[in-house]
Write a structure and sequence with these properties.
Helices cover 52% and strands 14% of the residues. It is α/β, with parallel strands linked by helices. The chain has a domain of 118 residues: Rossmann fold (3-Layer(aba) Sandwich), CATH 3.40.50.11890. The strands form 2 sheets. It has a 4-stranded parallel sheet. β1, α1 and β2 form a beta-alpha-beta unit.
Length: 333
C-alpha cells in the first residue's frame, strides 16, 4: 500500500502521485467523518483556541487521529492560518513540505514554485506530465457530471459538490475513484430531467454543513454551480499546454478579480438566479464578501459556518426568506 501524504488543500497532486505516494485531502477526511466534532475537540484539547477556524482544527485532528506522518501544507494562497498549523504539526513530529501559490499570478512565478515542488519530491517534468495526462480522463468525467447538473438537470447539487470536491485527491486512488464516478454517471444519466424552480450558484470554500444542498432542493432550488469544488476538478486542464498553465489557471488561490471573472462567466452561462456565498467563522476570506457583493449584480446571501455540520435554525430561516425573494423576483421579470 502506498504511503499517504496529507494535503491541506488542492496542490499539484500529479507530483505526489509521480513520486509513488497517495495524496489524501485532510479536509475530506475531516468533513466526511461521522465524528468531525471529535477532530475539533482533539485539536482544542491540544491547545487550539476556541476562536480558531474549525477547518484548521479539523485538519489537525484528521492528521493526528489518522496517523498521517507527512503532509503538504499550503502556506500562501489558501488559509492564512495554515503556516502556523504546519509549525504545530512539526512540533508533533509530522514531516511538513510547504507549497505556495505565488501572490502575483504569473507564468514565471508559478513555474518556479512548481519546479521547486517537483524537486522536493524527486520527480521531473516528464513524469509529472505523464501523470497529468493519465488524469485527464477522470477530469473529463467530472466535467460531464457538472453538465448533467446545470445543463441537463439530472444530477443533484450535492452530487455535483461531492464528486468535484473529491477531485482534490481522487480519494487517494484515481483508478478506484474513476470506477465509482463511472457508476454514478450511469445512474444519473438514466434519470429523467428535473428542472429546479431556482438555479443557484455556491461560491466560497466547501461548506461544513452538507445538508445545505438538501435543504435548498426541498425549497425547489438547486446549486447548479459549485465554484471552488469545480476549481478542484480543474475543468480547463484540457486546454493547458502543461502543468504550469494548469495551476496558473486555478482561480481560487489568486486575486479576487481573477476569481470573479470566472464566477461572472458561470453566472451568465448557467443562468443563475442567485448566489450563496459561504464563509467560515474566523476566516479572513469573510472580507471577500464585501468585494463580491459590490461586483456581482445578482442577489447574494452570505452564510457563515462554524463548528456545526448541520444548518442551524437561523440560517434555515434566512435561506427560506432569500429563496422566497428570488422566486418573487423571477416571477416579476
Amino acid at each position: 500500500m502506498k504511503e499517504k501524504i496529507g494535503i491541506t488543500t488542492t496542490v499539484p497532486v500529479e507530483a505526489i502521485i509521480a513520486a509513488g505516494f497517495a495524496p489524501v485531502d485532510l479536509n475530506n477526511i475531516f468533513v466526511t467523518s461521522n465524528d468531525c466534532q471529535g477532530y475539533i475537540e482533539a485539536a482544542e484539547r491540544d491547545g487550539f483556541p476556541k476562536s480558531m477556524c474549525a477547518w484548521i482544527k479539523g485538519l489537525y485532528g484528521a492528521c493526528m487521529i489518522n496517523g498521517i506522518k507527512k503532509i503538504v501544507g499550503v502556506v500562501q494562497g489558501d488559509c492564512s492560518n495554515t503556516a502556523s498549523l504546519t509549525e504545530v504539526l512539526r512540533l508533533r513530529g509530522i514531516d511538513v513540505i510547504p507549497f505556495s501559490y505565488p501572490h502575483e499570478r504569473s507564468a514565471e512565478n508559478v513555474k518556479n514554485e512548481l519546479d521547486r515542488f517537483m524537486k522536493l519530491w524527486g520527480v521531473d517534468l516528464k513524469s509529472v506530465e505523464a501523470v497529468r495526462a493519465s488524469l485527464q480522463g477522470i477530469r473529463g468525467k467530472a466535467i460531464l457530471l457538472d453538465e448533467l447538473t446545470w445543463r441537463e438537470s439530472k444530477a443533484s447539487g450535492f452530487e455535483n459538490h461531492l464528486y468535484q470536491v473529491s477531485m482534490s485527491d481522487f480519494n487517494s486512488d484515481p483508478e478506484v475513484f474513476e470506477g465509482e464516478l463511472d457508476s454514478k454517471l450511469c445512474e444519473i444519466e438514466d434519470r429523467e430531467a428535473d428542472e429546479p424552480r431556482l438555479r443557484l450558484g455556491y461560491i466560497g470554500v466547501p461548506p461544513m454543513m452538507a445538508d445545505l444542498y438538501e435543504f435548498a432542493e426541498q425549497q425547489g432550488a438547486r446549486m447548479v454551480y459549485n465554484e471552488v469544488q469545480r476549481e478542484f476538478a480543474f475543468p480547463r486542464a484540457g486546454y493547458a499546454k502543461n502543468i504550469y498553465e494548469q495551476y496558473a489557471d486555478y482561480t481560487y488561490p489568486y486575486d479576487i478579480d481573477f476569481r470573479l471573472k470566472e464566477i461572472k462567466k458561470q453566472i451568465e452561462e448557467r443562468k443563475l438566479d442567485g448566489l450563496v456565498h459561504y464563509t467560515q467563522a474566523f476566516c479572513h476570506r469573510a472580507l471577500d464578501d464585501i468585494i463580491i457583493k459590490s461586483r456581482i449584480d445578482i442577489p447574494i446571501i452570505n452564510i457563515e459556518g462554524d463548528k456545526s455540520d448541520r444548518l442551524d435554525a437561523r440560517t434555515r430561516l434566512r435561506l427560506e426568506a432569500f429563496l422566497d425573494m428570488l422566486c418573487d423576483r423571477k416571477e416579476a421579470l
